[in-house]
Amino acid sequence: MPQRIVVVGSGFAGFWAALSARRLISLTPEKGIADAAKIEVVVIAPDANLVMRPRLYEPNPANMSEPVDDIYRACGVSFVHGIVDTIHAAEHKIEMVDRAGVRSTMPYDKLVLAAGSRVVHPAIPGLDNYAFSVDQMEDAVKLDRHLHSLASRPSSKARNTIVVCGGGFTGIEVAAELPGRLRTILGKDADFRVITVDRSQDIGPDLGAGPRPHIVKALNDLGVETRLGTAVVGLDAEGVTLSSGERIETLTAIWTAGVVATPLTKQVSNERDGFGRLHVDQDLRVPTASDVFAAGDAASAAADDSGHCAKMSCQHAGPLGKIAGYNAAADLLKVPTIPYSQPVYRVCLDLGAAGAVVGEGWEVNVQHTGFKAKPIKQFINRTLIYPPKAIAAEAFAAADPAFDGSDPAVNHPTLSKFLQEYGISI
């Protein structure tokens, strides 16, 4: 009976985990391992599309996904439409519901949990009923439709005011992009306000001090207002209320404040971090469930030997997926595993019509700003994060854990030429 690797999730981590596992399996016959053909790799997800989640703050989010079923077929990965809602780690099986609502069980020999994360919804009155987000594809499409509907409404303070709840990475990108989107929808001379609210005294608190002056200048240049040191305490159909007592009239409140890992992590282990991510060892294995690996936003993994942890971003999701998939297959093939390490870290923050900020290192030392940084961000969003062609050789080459596609400065075949056109070195 064939052995089975089940990958839960088809985001960046799950996609690369499946391809990395199949790559190793495809290589093993050359080493004389006869059991390689008896290992199947199965991905379970609601649909076979790789959603460009890092781009969902942009216009036209309905186009921000790429079908990957052809790639799976070319590489010998089986795809199953379904939602996994139960993991029985001790019994080595999962339970799922398919698109017809039919429940079934699937056994596994190795499991890679890569089911991502969701935006946190704290118990704030009105949040669930009145807030928009750009967290998932359906959320971003709903917001996009709402923004376009504003043009058909009479001008008013509430119609013309957008409140971005959260001043972190996502909140900044949303707020910086909104002026351009609103001018396209309401007219270039439209009178509108974009206001960002965050409980921190500083914008982008997790980004550090380095990029902050550039972020503040960009938001000021774009006309984006900030309310810092205050929190949203209530939302209704016509506005938001802040902890400072201020009420802002708006028809559009966009919630971006924090994410939490898939609740499936709770079914695997109690050893989780503050984001709900599973603590894993260097092989990305869950210590209390040795046949379960975690990747992407489900994994709390040490990125280096200096105490830095992988971020909940596609920059880390891809490499985490490649290592988790490789190691799940390596276990079954009885070949050495590869420890996860990702010491290189970069921040590339979109600032809409004001350009971007590119910084290097965990302290985010700024390298490029404004329109010099913008082409780098565009390259990442429009090229680097997209899947390879449905050709097994190309897909397997990209899935090699030694290929660090998360870092545009390291061995990416086309970035240097792309940046030379803009006179940029990195």
From TrEMBL:
<dbReference type="GO" id="GO:0003954">
    <property type="term" value="F:NADH dehydrogenase activity"/>
</dbReference>
<keyword id="KW-0520">NAD</keyword>
<dbReference type="InterPro" id="IPR023753">
    <property type="entry name" value="FAD/NAD-binding_dom"/>
</dbReference>
<comment type="similarity">
    <text>Belongs to the NADH dehydrogenase family.</text>
</comment>
<keyword id="KW-0274">FAD</keyword>
<keyword id="KW-0560">Oxidoreductase</keyword>
<dbReference type="Pfam" id="PF07992">
    <property type="entry name" value="Pyr_redox_2"/>
</dbReference>
<keyword id="KW-0285">Flavoprotein</keyword>
<feature type="domain" description="FAD/NAD(P)-binding">
    <location>
        <begin position="4"/>
        <end position="304"/>
    </location>
</feature>
<dbReference type="InterPro" id="IPR045024">
    <property type="entry name" value="NDH-2"/>
</dbReference>
<dbReference type="InterPro" id="IPR036188">
    <property type="entry name" value="FAD/NAD-bd_sf"/>
</dbReference>
<protein>
    <recommendedName>
        <fullName>FAD/NAD(P)-binding domain-containing protein</fullName>
    </recommendedName>
</protein>
